[in-house]
Amino acid sequence: MNRKFIALLTYIILICQLTVIPTATAAQNIEDLVNQGKLTIDLKVNHKEQQIVGQALILAIEVSTDRWFATGSQIQHFTLKNVVMQANNITTINGSKRIKGQTWATQTHEITLYPTVSGAYQIDPIHVDISVNTEHDGIVSGELSTQESSFNIELPKALEGIENFIVSPQVTLNVDGQFDEEKNYAIGEAITQTITITANDTPAMMIKPINLVANNLVAASLTANDKSTDNKVVSDKATLDGVSIYHKPAQVFDKSNRGTLLGTRIESFTYIFEKPGRYVIDEQVIYWWNSQTNTLEYLLIPSSAWTVSDGGLSKISTANALTSFNNFTIKSVINSVIIIVLLIFTSLGFIKRHYLFALYNKVTKREQRLLRSEFLNAVTNKNYLIATQYLYQYAVFQNKQTLAAGYSQAVTLNQLAFYESNTENIPLSFSVSDAKVLISKIDASISKKEDAANFTPKERINLNSD
Per the UniProt record, which residue ranges are transmembrane (predicted)? Predict the structure, then answer.
């Protein structure tokens, strides 16, 4: 009897163990997996020995499970004050590790930050969405948070008082479009200066814009009565003492070269000369902290100086303007009369309609206007080869000859047309503003030749030399 009772008691205990133990260890949520030691999360701050302002800093969040991930883990959006984060700044690395002889699956999320000020930073818990495929309970999903953490950012003494600087192991500067100090530029001419800055291991968003601010651009008049100079801030489109400055929107982009991040910023300024004078742009300094040697270095955008002359026409500018106005008024009246007479003759049947259209096109310069429009459209679409063809036809319509030598814009356009298949690899640019300047030069040269009969022989020599 005792043996039967003992056997029955043993059987009951075994049944209780089979039913009670799994229920006690079942994982209903993510926290259960953590409490059972089957899931871990850890946050590490991977910083340099000297972590400074503007230098990349990486937060590494590692999620580990003794099984495997179902849909993986994902970092929820979070913010951190005085820190710049790129849109796609998280890199996820899948891996594994051994814990007490067992293989665990891991997912490591590396978040790149760029602190903008020095001091202590506090990291609040970062929330992570996790989904794990368990052994007995299927897929368990939920949210897990990292522990609080902190880090410190320094500002070396050499950088104190410097507002803008780049942190990189290597920074390069290229300036295309230098002014010729020995040359006398004419009114209406233009120079486009393109400044390209490239930094290794640094995103382009960390390269500050280049602005022509006070004390950078000084215009000194050539007239004896005006010896004052003005310093002004130059905006995207500004006029400063006879020079119009057009600032194109900056090109900011990143690319990878053999695993190395390259940030590039391209700034382009076009200077159109409107008045005679002596102009000077002071040199500009680009500071950068060499993260390899931990030293301050700098690059120089060289100063520029140039002179704009009036081409010998200043003495007769008033008379010329009056003559041009009178000629314009007389021509307008004559053209109106001609059109009215042609319409009358056509209505009476004396002139055929196609002759009228031909005369109308000639009087209104319709072909020239169409060619000018097509030329500007081709430049807008960066179809430089077609643009050169329209420009040649426009020049022929205007003065029955090819383009005069010495137009810097025409030279640039021809170079772009020749290298049209690979324009990204040459440091040239030709904008719609450049195209309009070139058109105005052609029109201006024609106006000068048409009005040359009204000038003295000495004035005609000045016109030809211009």
Answer: 333-351
